[in-house]
Amino acid sequence: MSRKRLSSVLTMGLMGLVPFVVAAQPAAAASSVTSQYINNVSNLLLAVALPITIIVEGVLFYAIWKFRKADEAKPTQENRRLEITWTAATAVVLLFVGLVAYGAMGSPYVLSSQEDSQQMMEQPDTTVVHVDSYQWSWQFHYQHDGTNFTSSKLVLPAEKQVVLRVTSRDVLHSVHIPALGLKKDAFPARTTYIATEINSDSVREEPYVLYCAEFCGAGHSNMLADVIVKNQTTYEQWASQQAQQAQQEASGSSSSESSSPSSAATTNATTTTSNATTTNATTTDGTAALAAPSV
């Protein structure tokens, strides 16, 4: 066997192994309900695409090998039955892909509509976080036991339904947390929603990273935020601490504001007394000075 023919055989053999290598890769564990839907779609499409790829590549390699010595291509007659067969097969494959994709895209955990998200937010066990984006940072607003507080980190509970209300103060941004399978654009003067439930296996002390996935200006590459997933007990403790701290800060601000008028009144009274004393002393000294010559 010549070197050229050997290289051709090896090339075709290696190309034929590619689908099997791809299929042999272990599937990553889903980190959230959202990523589970996406993984299911990918696995089903791979299950369909893999045999089709093997068949098509097999026919191609067979044709290359079979007619490798042919000098000129010979014209062939139209085979209507074959054309109908591959057209029907293609239609079936596309229909399958559409049905599988619709099954995932129709879930509120993948494409979260306002109606679905509002229904979830009305449930008492749902954690709602308001995601506020602006050039070039993030703020996350929470409510716990009737107290509002703000965090620079996105802290989420595991094994609990979560709804993120996403908006922008200025230009287009995009919330993207690849590790959790979450992504949603942020628009000015408009609210979009992300609904998900994070699996307990995703709980860890090391933070995930939230990126802005929409170019938004000079600081776009630095528009990052930490995402911390906690179990429900630890999350409740964190939220309670943040709420208490917010209440203390609010009480301190109220005390400062209420004490300000009293301080102002005291200052005014002191100033008035001081002015009166100075006036009296001047008048007395002046009177004595004027009276002295007459004596």
UniProtKB/TrEMBL annotation:
Question: Cellular component terms, GO, for this chain's entry?
Answer: membrane
Q: Name one GO biological process term.
A: ATP synthesis coupled electron transport
According to its UniProt record, where is this protein located?
Answer: Membrane
Could you list this entry's UniProt keywords, alphabetically sorted: Copper, Electron transport, Membrane, Metal-binding, Respiratory chain, Translocase, Transmembrane, Transmembrane helix, Transport
Is Aminoacyl-tRNA synthetase a UniProt keyword of this protein? no
Q: Which residues cross the membrane?
A: 45-65, 86-111
Note the InterPro entries from the entry.
Answer: CcO_II, CcO_II-like_C, Copper_CuA, Cupredoxin, Cyt_c_oxidase_su2, Cyt_c_oxidase_su2_TM_dom, Cyt_c_oxidase_su2_TM_sf
The record places domain Cytochrome oxidase subunit II transmembrane region profile at 16-112
Q: Does the keyword Membrane apply?
A: yes
Q: Where is the Cytochrome oxidase subunit II copper A binding domain?
A: 124-241
Q: Cite the Pfam families for this sequence.
A: COX2, COX2_TM
Q: How does it sit in the membrane?
A: Multi-pass membrane protein
EC nos: 7.1.1.9
Segments for region (Disordered): 240-295
GO terms of molecular function = copper ion binding; cytochrome-c oxidase activity; oxidoreductase activity
Assigned protein family: Belongs to the cytochrome c oxidase subunit 2 family.
Name of the featured protein:
cytochrome-c oxidase
Question: What organism does the UniProt record list as the source?
Answer: Halarchaeum salinum
